[in-house]
Design a protein that fits this description.
Chain A: Belongs to the RecO family. Chain A: It holds the Pfam family RecO_N. The structure holds two protein chains of two kinds. Chain A is of the alpha+beta class. Chain A has a five-stranded antiparallel sheet. Chain A has a three-stranded antiparallel sheet with strand order 7-6-8. In chain A, helix 2 packs antiparallel against helix 3. Chain A is elongated and about 60 Å long. Chain A starts with a strand and ends with a helix. Chain B is α/β, with parallel strands linked by helices. Helices cover 44% and strands 11% of the residues of chain B. Classes of the chains: A alpha+beta, B alpha/beta.
């Protein structure tokens, strides 16, 4: 059994003295692990870094074996190492993908969005925090926990949407929220895809996506805590 | 195949667990030791027994010592107000081989890792912050690996030291001595270009 694809490295672990087990996110094969022979060498150290885009050949005798990868570098994203905030973003994206994605299940649209986000992070492109927030929204959607932000769950109106119901994940307008507003999650305009995001809007959006990651997604994945890398990123963005 | 007795087989099995050795090389090493029993094996066994009994972590920096404090922390000439932060004792020894740094060290014992749930408290970071206050440190040199985890840890420490009045520096990244550009990876070339200096 073998296949060829390109993907981004999410995690690397040592395997014996000379090899490494890597986890990659590919378009056609989703999150996939495999052994890299000689992956612990100095030559491979620069290639096998989380966030690096690599060309892969996977080979195994049987489909359900872990198999081995032959890896060649395509894009180094080492530029991110010098930027504290972008590096925190890269850690959060890799950790969340590794945490949330089922193995060997393709998510091409999420993979494509993740590649774009990795590129933005490696160049510290302005506006990447907003792209990260929207990426979290897409992650929830891809895994079956998508929010319905098209119209108010109470009045049916498409205007003045300002809240999200923590129970249903549906938008609620200011008028529809009434006295319940304090119990609802914030819905900043940037989550609706409207306009730029202020730091306060970003923080509000991350509260909402974080709620669904923590209270809906994580319990279904064995009730593991969300990766600390996300909390670190949110804290750093809050200090911006 | 000639069979050794059980004790020697047990020794070979133990030796084979050392880094860089496998069953065949361990067998060769044990045979070599037995042939030089008086000159090599007995002193080696005595040295290993002594170190096994006395080796411990330096209470201040985390280096390996045979007393409570390591030689570097005991040396008053090395109280220069500079601390070099390294990930592992092997990194400290590498820095010492270079003989370029004459201050003191702090061994973290790892790096922050989301995958392995290693946070700041699992590392020696709180102890480092305490040392910068207690030892009147003026400069912290971050000599951590140029990897995602190493640099995440470096940024975390730099942020924790912000506002403390301590100067935080890091090792340069770029073309190694004897390195040829054609063989360098993209990331190293990018880092080297960013860190270029007037010639």
């Amino acid at each position: 059994m073998d296949w060829r694809d390109e993907g981004t490295i999410l995690a690397v672990r040592g395997h014996g003295e000379t090899s490494a087990i890597i986890e990659v996110f590919t378009a056609a094969h989703g999150r996939h692990a495999g052994v890299v022979r000689g992956g612990a060498s100095r030559k491979m150290a620069a290639v096998l870094q989380p966030g690096s885009r690599v060309a892969l050949v996977w080979h195994a005798r049987l489909q359900d074996h872990i198999g081995s990868f032959t890896v060649e570098p395509v894009v180094s994203r080492a530029g991110v190492l010098g930027d504290r905030l972008a590096l925190a973003g890269l850690n959060a994206v890799c950790a969340l993908l590794s945490f949330a994605l089922p193995e060997r299940e393709p998510h091409p649209s999420l993979q494509s969005a993740s590649e774009g986000l990795f590129d933005a992070l490696s160049t510290a492109a302005p506006g990447w925090p907003l792209a990260y927030l929207r990426w979290e929204l897409l992650l929830l959607e891809e895994l079956g926990y998508g929010l319905d932000l098209t119209r108010c769950a109470v009045t049916g109106s498409r205007d003045d949407l300002a809240h999200v119901s923590p129970r249903t994940g549906r938008a609620v307008s200011r008028a529809g929220a009434g006295d319940w507003a304090s119990r609802l999650l914030p819905l900043p305009e940037c989550l609706l895809g409207q306009g730029p995001a202020s730091p306060a809007d970003l923080a509000a959006g991350l509260i909402t996506t974080g709620y669904f990651l923590e209270h809906r997604l994580a319990p279904d994945l064995g009730d593991r805590p969300l990766p600390a890398a996300r909390a670190r990123l949110v804290a750093m963005l809050g200090r911006m | 195949m000639a069979s050794a007795n059980d004790e020697i087989e047990a020794l070979i099995a133990l030796m084979a667990r050392l880094p860089g050795l496998g069953p065949r090389s361990a067998r060769r090493a044990v045979l070599h030791l037995i042939r030089r029993r008086g000159a090599l094996m007995a002193p080696l066994a005595a040295a290993m027994a002594h170190v096994a009994e006395t080796a411990r972590e330096c209470a201040v920096c985390g280096n390996i010592a045979t007393g409570d404090l390591c030689d570097i922390c005991l040396n008053p000439a090395r109280a220069t107000g500079e601390i070099c932060v390294v990930e592992d004792v092997a990194d400290l020894w590498a820095m010492e081989r270079g003989q370029a740094f004459r201050g003191r060290y702090h061994v973290l014992g790892g790096t922050l890792s989301a995958l392995d749930a290693v946070g700041p408290d699992e590392l020696g970071i709180p102890r480092l912050l305490e040392r910068t206050r207690a030892e009147a440190i003026s400069e912290v040199i971050l000599a951590l690996n140029a990897t995602v985890e190493g640099q995440t840890t470096a940024h975390y420490i730099a942020e924790a030291l912000e506002g403390s009045g301590v100067s935080v520096t890091s090792l340069a990244q770029g073309v190694p001595i004897g390195g040829e550009l054609d063989y360098l990876d993209d990331g190293t070339i990018q880092a080297a270009l960013r860190a270029r200096k007037r010639f």
